[in-house]
Design brief:
By secondary structure, the chain is α+β, with helices and mostly antiparallel strands. The protein has 2 domains: 4-197, BirA Bifunctional Protein, domain 2, CATH 3.30.930; 227-307, no CATH class. It is built from 9 helices and 7 strands. Strands 1-5-7-6-4 form a 5-stranded antiparallel sheet, with helices on both faces. Strands 2-3 form a two-stranded antiparallel sheet. A hairpin with a 4-residue loop joins strand 2 (41-44) and strand 3 (49-52). The longest helix is centred in the C-terminal third of the chain and has 23 residues, at 272-294. The radius of gyration is 25 Å and the shape is globular. The two termini are 46 Å apart.
Length: 308
């Protein structure tokens, strides 16, 4: 069951306009980002624009979560993000962080919300930061749904007076940009996923968000194939993304055979046994190639015809 965490920075220095900024990636207007993710209409005072995404589909839930004692304006999406914009003076200022939590399909919508809120409590509001999250569920390329949560949160915590304080960014001492902080967030997400998943009596799955390398698995990470790429490939177009996916797919399928190639140096030269062993390896590799490229029956047929 697939689940993962991605983090990015929303800043004015991204070099895109407000419309482009409202897409899934970070951009130049934090108000536009918030409007898009929540599927709402928000007035952007800094850019003097109105961002209307009320016609956006697949927004299942949107909510702002604040630290205890936060003022009322912090719970209003338009006021919140306009205050964030107004508080930053630099033209390349960092405005917010966004974490995308890819949610597993074995959990239902209420369980998704439970996971997201638990993660926010541990990693955002506990630091005095304000979180604005939305759960989306667009169609996936395999015909199912692709549930995920966008969690935007402020970089400045609220102080005792209910005003923004000093930014918590940086790479050292627990800063939001550090690798250590990313690892903490990832482990926290894994923890909350496993707690909620354990509640499903007939569908318990243990999540491990470590990379293949960290788990000692000899496998190349695969790329995500979105709907646009899949549609182009189905129509006969060969995309660079699709080619890279096929390349990694072939590489992973052939890895069980690669270990035999490394055994060549362990075989003595000039013996009948070694000669037969090498030929069997070559046959296995060729058979695997045809299985991957053309299917199992085609591979056997082509190999037998070549032998005759």
């Amino acid at each position: 069951m697939h689940a993962c965490l991605h983090i990015s920075t929303i800043s004015r220095g991204a070099g895109r306009n407000a419309a482009a900024a409202s897409a899934y990636r970070s951009g130049s207007s934090v108000v536009a980002c918030a409007a898009y993710r929540a599927g709402e209409k928000l007035q952007d005072n800094y850019h003097e624009k109105t961002h209307d995404y009320t016609k956006k589909h697949n927004v299942l839930h949107a909510e702002i979560i604040t630290p205890d004692g936060a003022p009322d304006w912090a719970k209003d999406r338009q006021q919140l993000w306009n205050r964030v914009e107004a508080g930053e003076k630099r033209k390349d200022a960092q405005l917010a962080k966004e974490v995308v939590l890819v949610l597993p399909r074995n959990l239902d919508h209420e369980q998704h919300k439970e996971v997201v809120k638990g993660w926010i409590a541990d990693n955002v509001t506990s630091k005095g930061l304000i979180a604005d999250y939305a759960i989306h569920a667009p169609d996936a390329s395999d015909g199912g749904k692709n549930p995920h949560a966008h969690v935007m949160f402020t970089l400045r915590p609220l102080d005792e007076k209910g005003e923004f304080g000093k930014k918590l960014t940086g790479y050292k001492d627990g800063g939001l940009d550090g690798r250590d902080m990313l690892e903490v967030m990832r482990q926290s997400y894994q923890h909350h996923l496993n707690i909620v998943s354990a509640e499903n009596e007939n569908n318990q799955i243990t999540f491990d968000l470590r990379s293949y390398k960290e788990r000692g698995i000899d496998k190349t990470p695969q790329l995500k194939i979105g709907q646009k790429v899949k549609a182009l490939e189905n129509r006969g177009y060969k995309t660079e993304w699709g080619k890279e996916w096929q390349k990694r797919n072939h590489l992973n399928k052939s890895k069980p055979y690669q270990k035999f190639v490394g055994s060549y140096n362990l075989i003595g030269d000039g013996t009948k046994y070694s000669s037969n062993f090498v030929e069997s390896i070559r046959a296995d590799i060729a058979q695997k190639y045809y299985d991957v490229m053309y299917g199992e029956d085609r591979g056997v047929k082509e190999w037998n015809e070549w032998e005759r």
